[in-house]
Amino acid sequence: MKSLARPLALVVAGAALGWSGATLAQDERPARAVVTAAIEKAWPGAKVGEVEEEELALAGYEVEVEAGEQELEVSAGPDGTIFEVAREATKDELPAPVTERLAKLGGAVGDVARTERRAQLQVVALPAPVITWEVTLTRKGERAGRYEVELGADGAVLSEERVDDEEGDDAEGQKSEDEPSMGGTRR
Fold first, then answer.
1. Are residues 111 and 149 in the same domain?
2. 3 falls within a domain
3. What are phi and psi of 42, to 5 degrees?
4. Is 34 strand, coil or helix?
5. Mean pLDDT (whole number) for 30-59
6. How far apart are CA 54 and CA 79, in angstroms?
7. Distance CA 163, CA 147 (A)
8. Which comes out higher in pLDDT, residue 167 or 80?
9. Coil, strand, or helix at residue 128?
10. Is the domain of 111 the same as that of 159?
11. Residue 156 domain-assigned?
């Protein structure tokens, strides 16, 4: 079965405004105005520069499921919340309004997939800011290399990832061997 589930992502401006499926490009001016107003409120007198849409990833799982005759792709959060269920479908399953719209659009119907959304994200303001620190760390010795480390204000390591420079050299200027990445490791 082809991968039907899309990456789980949150469009900050759209989600903050409660827009379903809207992107900054589709309705740019109201989103920019709301985002700019929020920045000006948080930092009075600040000069607002470029405003760009940003997608933030959500940790989750994509699970392949066989349920009777159906093969499903299920997207779920780490708490077990099921976000989406996707499966291949036939054009005979399309509801009348969809079939009518496709006829107006013209063309031959190819692959069909049915996606059922069961949950949506909601942006919730925190009662107080949570501060984290991102540091580039250069190590020597057995674990030689450059690392990006994220730490909580209490010093807890939240994530650590080995990064190589543009030429693929490690911190000591040696070509890196195929060392496993520590990408996104949470501790």
1. no
2. no
3. -70, -35
4. helix
5. 83
6. 25
7. 5
8. 80
9. coil
10. no
11. yes
